[in-house]
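Fold it.
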Amino acid sequence: MIRARRRALLSLVALAALVALAPRPAAAADAAPTPVRVATFCPFVNEALAGAGDHAKVVASVRRSFHQPVPEGVADLGTPHTPNVEVLASSGATLVVIDRTSHAALAPKLSAQGLEVFEIDTSSVEATFTGLTELGKRTGASDVVDPRIEKARSALAAQKPAEPVRVLALMGTPSSFFVMTKRSWQGDLLSKLGFVNVAADVVGEERAPGFVPLSDEVLVGLAPDRVLLVAHGDVDAVKQAFERRMQERGVWRSPKDGAFPVVEVLPPERFLANPGLALPEVARLLVSDAPQADVAAPPRGAAASEVVPSAGATVREVAPPSGGGL
């Protein structure tokens, strides 16, 4: 009796060992990992993670601009200034990418909702690329993201104006203007491209990181060859307001002919929000329109390029290339 029980016990042990050593079914062994479900308050993350479906899937995103919808199949979180947290909660996202310069105050609230918060510093070109590199590591999508980053870096390095140009970069509303210092991604991009940003080191009360109000004292102390204006809001109203301000203050007139420097109005959909991997597209607009580069800007006072007729100030719009996109 005892021997029979012992034989039965040994048989069970042997059977258990065989089951443990048996190969798993193919479906279980080869099951694909679940992609990280990503929501982003930085629109450029859509392009960075495109095609990384095995590792990461963008399920919710803010818009690049008010009139530009999010990609098909992605929940619309609204604008980067006021992301819709209710839509975010229903999107099923587990990780949310935020802009450290704009959304840091939202991080505790997002974490309290059980979301993993991933911050990208968008205040400079290199910080943006570094943030995307780390996002690729976090989501396991480095093999998709890293080659795109290197391609963008190479494209930027290949773009330079033939000679250094003194530029002043401004963001304006009809009632106020702000200089873009080296602490903004726009100012940092100008430096990387070889421009001389005459307001790079301007200091003052920053309403947003890197943006300092354009006071009369600052205005008088600058002497740009080229003014780059990004309108926030009514573009025509902003153009006219700045043109009027230049004329009233009488600054920057050429001692030779009394003409003002050309003021170029840049497309806001490309220059307000950091475009991420599309930074080379934005750089191309700046470099190709430089006076010493492929497309020459008109000399000071040239009437042929005027958009808003004036007593001397020349204001013209720089249009994005057709077919190019961010």
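The longest strand covers residues 166-172.
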